[in-house]
Specification:
MetI-like fold, 6-stranded antiparallel beta sheet, 12 strands, flat
């Protein structure tokens, strides 16, 4: 009976099912872990107040949020320099975010639970998220306007929220002026400078032509000065307000309202207010620009750069891979040379990605980019235009990296088309080209989309080659804006994969960056899922369309 059961193949079916189930559980568990640790960062945590007392030392007053707690052996704690009684074997310690890095020069610190007094949750505890120096923890005293007190005590809280919202609105207006209005003027002035340089190189720099360009430059300069005056006026309005607060150590500090991003009173916030705070923080993370060495703010430039790079890569790799597969399967004479090409394509898929990055830097950036600059961008030299890492070269490098995947998947799809379909089309009078492009290729379209799905999944997560051919820690401008030609493929860009590496391994504030690593990783996974689902939906529509046409 057992022997027949083995012969039936049922054990292998159950083994495969178990392996798939375990893999699914691991994937879901990993994504769940990333989601919990990343998304929980935006929830306003309660602020605790306690006293830390160590023998033979003065008690220290602490105010902050508990980031995590763990139980370790006493030996580990002693090696870190903490006092623990000799007879104690197990110690519970807590990591507190104390903020105030500009005052105490540290943002996070470990404390032994046995030395901490009773935890209280003061209602007047203030948390300020700042543009620089991280969070501030303290107690609100007063709101100042031009150095004069305008609100104190309980009335100061409503005034604080109102003036923080005003400062945030003014900051957005200033950023709009600097990033788009003044940035657009600077771009146009640079184009005028390049136009003057081109006229000089061609010997056409007549006084009339140069005067016309100078007139355009002067008009732009006048427009810039008007915007600069408006920007300075907004800055003066924003700088008039400030907050006076007291730290846990009893020190009184004054913080400019222009440096505050968000103010919170976590210990008295209702559930609805916490939800609103969470949504506001998460929106900032998704749609804002990074700050503080990428450990604060948002990741919008990285999201934008990743999606745009994948789209450009897909536009490049899909037609090249499909045409190569059609030639190998339908046109090339099947023999030793064709088999050698297929072996090379398969081996190309196993080349380390960093090798593609080195090739892209040497061939695409320095050779092709340098040649393009010499031919079309002489006016900009010696500053390179395409002769430097940029979005286009990164997309082209990843297209080369994922090309074998598209070729193999397309060839597999073409090989599954029955020979009788080709013969029937030819028998009805169609040429070979008509048979391939009107009959065979539409039937193999789902397989082509499968290759594109695999290519997108791999390209979106690659980091090593991008470090050489275009990705940067912080890009001053997006590769797409309102200036002609709108899509600037020569610009460097930010990428979610590199952002994760930079925040996780290059950050000066590791504890502050840790939750952002999880949140950014979750964002990258979700983007890959969305891109893949879009490609799957297109593939399914093509499959249904072909079925309906055949019916």
């Amino acid at each position: 009976m057992l022997k027949q059961w083995y012969k039936s193949g049922s054990p292998y079916i159950w083994l495969n099912a178990g392996a798939i189930a375990i893999s699914m559980i691991m994937v879901v568990g990993l994504i769940g872990l990333i989601a919990v640790r990343g998304l929980s960062h935006f929830w306003p945590a309660a602020v605790i107040e306690t006293t830390y007392t160590v023998p033979d030392e003065e008690p220290v007053r602490l105010l902050g949020t508990v980031r995590r707690s763990e139980t370790v052996t006493a030996t580990v704690v002693r090696e870190a320099g903490f006092y623990v009684p000799e007879d104690q074997m197990i110690v519970t310690r807590h990591l507190l975010q104390l903020g105030n890095r500009d005052i105490t020069s540290r943002d996070f610190a470990w404390y032994i639970g046995d030395h901490m007094g009773e935890w209280t949750y003061p209602e007047n505890a203030l948390v300020l998220e700042r543009m620089t120096w991280g969070n501030f923890y303290g107690y609100l005293e007063a709101i100042l306007e031009d150095g004069e007190v305008v609100a104190e005590g309980e009335a100061a809280w409503d005034e604080l929220y109102e003036r923080v919202a005003r400062a945030v609105d003014l900051r957005q207006q200033i950023l709009q002026i600097e990033r788009y209005d003044i940035g657009g003027i600077a771009y146009q002035q640079e184009q005028i400078r390049l136009a003057q340089r081109r006229l000089e190189l061609r010997g056409e720099d007549t006084p009339e032509a140069m005067a016309e360009l100078e007139e355009q430059h002067a008009a732009l300069q006048e427009e810039y000065e008007e915007l600069d005056l408006h920007r300075n006026d907004l800055r003066r309005q924003m700088d008039r307000d400030s907050v006076r607060a007291e730290t846990a150590e009893g020190r009184t500090v004054t913080i400019a309202m222009s440096d505050i991003v968000r103010a919170a009173r976590p210990n008295v916030m209702s559930f609805g207010e916490k939800i609103g705070h969470y949504v506001d923080s998460f929106k900032e993370f998704v749609f804002d620009y990074p700050r503080e060495a990428n450990t604060e703010g948002g990741i919008f430039p990285a999201i934008f750069g990743t999606v745009l790079m994948v789209i450009v890569m897909s536009i490049i790799v899909t037609p090249v891979g499909v045409l190569a597969a059609i030639y190998l399967r339908e046109y090339a004479r099947q023999g030793p040379f064709t088999r050698l090409i297929r072996i090379c394509v398969n081996n190309l898929a196993g080349v380390p990605s960093i090798v593609f990055g080195v090739f892209g830097l040497g061939f695409f950036v320095y050779f092709l980019g340098g040649a393009i600059d010499d031919q079309f961008f002489q006016a900009a030299q010696p500053a390179p235009t395409f002769g430097r890492p940029g979005l286009f070269w990164a997309s082209l490098t990843l297209a080369l990296l994922t090309l074998p995947v598209v070729i193999v998947a397309t060839e597999e799809g073409l090989s599954r088309i029955p020979k009788s379909v080709r013969e029937g089309s030819l028998a009805l009078g169609a040429t070979k080209a008509e048979t391939i492009w009107r009959t065979v290729v539409p039937m193999a379209a789902p397989a082509m989309m499968t290759g594109l799905i695999l290519a997108v999944a791999r390209a979106a997560g690659e980091v090593a080659p991008l470090m050489l051919v275009g990705v940067v820690k912080l890009a001053p401008n997006l590769p797409m804006d309102g200036n002609f030609p709108y899509l600037h493929l020569d610009r460097s860009f930010m990428h979610l994969g590199f952002h994760i590496y930079d925040v996780g391994f290059q950050s000066p504030n590791v504890e502050a960056a840790r939750p952002l690593v999880y949140a950014t990783a979750l964002t990258l996974v979700l983007i890959i899922i969305v891109l893949n689902l879009t490609a799957i939906a297109i593939r399914n529509r093509l499959r249904e369309k072909f079925k309906s046409d055949s019916d």
